[in-house]
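User: Assemble these into one structure.

Assistant: Restating your components, then the assembled model:
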Amino acid sequence: MIPDLGKYTETVLSAYGISIVLLVALVVLSVMRGRRVRTELKSVEQRMSRDG
Amino acid sequence: MIALLLRDLKLAFRAGGGFGLGLAFFLIVTVLVPFSVGPQSSLLSIIAPGVLWLGALLACLLSLDRLLALDWEDGSLDLLATAPLPLEAVVAVKSLAHWLTTGLPLVLVAPLLGVMLNLPETGFTWLVVSLLIGTPALSVIGTFGAAITVGLKRGGLLLSLLVLPLYVPTLIFGAEVARRGATGTELETPLLLLAGITTATIALLPFASAAVLKINLR
Amino acid sequence: MTITAKANSLWEYANPRKFLATSERLLPFFWLASTTCLVVGLVWGFFFTPDDYKQGSTVKIIYLHVPSALMAINCWLMMLAASLIWLVRRHHVSALAARAAAPVGIVFTLVALVTGAIWGQPMWGSWWAWDPRLTSFLILFLFYLGYVALWEAIEDPDTAADLTSVLCLVGSVFAILSRYAVNFWNQGLHQGASVMRVAAVTGSDTEEKVSNIYFFPLMLCIVGFVLLFIALVLYRTCTEIRARRIKALLARERANA
Amino acid sequence: MTLTVTDLAIARGGLALLERLNFVLEPGKALILRGPNGIGKTTLLRTLAGLQAPLAGQIQGAEDRIAYAAHADGLKPTLTVAENLSFWMSVFGTHSIQPALDRYDLNELADRQAGNLSAGQKRRAGLARLLVTGRPIWMLDEPTVSLDRNAVTMFAEAVEDHLKYGGSALIATHIDLGLEAKVLDISSNKVKPRPIEDFDGAFL
């Protein structure tokens, strides 16, 4: 399935691997933080509108 | 303004003023270098200009966190900001005092340490010249970093992180002049560029530092 | 009526609530488009382009290296623009967008550096060479780190926005200076090294043209990275706006307690 | 000249504190600033002294005429009292520190390093700085902290003298100084919190 990369197989695969891991990690961390902040804001807003 | 300069100098020389701390640091770093790379004089004479420049830069960095933080803590900065002096002038004078108490002594002892590192004879003049022209820029850039981090409780590490990248161009051109001086090659271009950086930072950065300080004071 | 006139102004989006609403609507499109472009571009480049006669299969790294390097710089430029807008017009969203973009810039710079080093290993024979371009990115990386650290260190959000904006301005000037300094500095060390032409492929100012077979997948990847950047920044700015509002609400609660 | 404050609103850390502040401080008059802790007295004084920008409104007659004294005295511990005061004398371009030393009974302490003084003595040296500045409007933030009764009298006399020669003072304090002064109570100027549904550029 993977094309023949010759003697540079490891080089190319590691470059792709590391880059994709970094980018995916960035997206996942951003989304996780986004979700957390969103729920936190909701709870704070609810509490504040209840307490006035 | 002269009063401020004199006060800062007086404070630096009084007990606990920190004068000599930078010098001692410079000396120790330079002494440690042969221990870490080996005593071959041929190797030392090659790396001597770079080591001395780096040592001077780090010694300069060491004293930056006291530059404005002390005046901040005892309230003097608030009072200076309400005094009839423009804050830009205050900042510029502070940089000058820092250079006189840190940069200038470093320049003066650098040749001595050069001897210890087997700096080639041709290199001494240019080492001193490059440091003399370059260290004012280090003080002015450092003042900017100190102004940014002045309100922070543990700003020392952050200060280094902010200031060191800003030191890159000065270090590159300054060390280049010293290196070329040691090998006796053409050094007019880096010397001019170094002088250019110093002049430009002295002319412009105090405005940025004062702006940043005003933000921190409010 | 004044309301219609206002709605046509671009600055209307500086209102956090309006920004949130608009972003929420646009984000699915950007996520989808960027993923599509990246997947198609990378698959095309990885599986369906031939090896270079000189660099062999390592040429495939170009699809990651060039777009990430490009966006690493553009991200800083975007932060610079956002900082200026904050300093001049005092729109909070602008400052928060700059804050949101910085970690994205860090990751892109890191990708550019890592792919550069990995690519350099077989070409130069070592993982790291103090090639001017690579060194400049390392310095850019340090600037990003300092910028993010400053944001994290300051308690008061407006003060943090002001200080980071000034740092971004001053940093930009010094980053450009460093770029020239590094070029100057390295010239003396690696004069005429022919392998350096590998690095030359990576820039827009190169004399070598990337040939057509590589061009289309590369363009697709660049577009993909641009869209990914926009999506990430929009999303993260929304997060920052909410975090800022939490902070403001808590401060208000404390003040009225 | 008179200090006139019109419709002033101030903020701390992006949070609006006080609004609709209107008052006049005439030469020869003192105002005592009153209000509960945390309402923004310090912020108000700092705003008037020009250390931070007001949220709205106008301050007239403050430019380069205000001497500000806060909790910190701005004394350098390794300089003597005389050196500290002389420094501020040169900065403000006045001519003598002697009246200030006399007024706060600092002559015997003049050659002592400020770091060796007691808290009350330091405070006295800090207040003496006001006389050295030669500025007509004093902005004082809890000036009597750590002063004994004797020193408080000294301070009150200094203020009275200052007023007699056409100066004015705005003093945030909780104790009675025995001055003939109007009280400026800012409790009613506290900003009413807006409903949290309001979600605009400032997030509140």
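Residues 62-247 of chain C form one domain.
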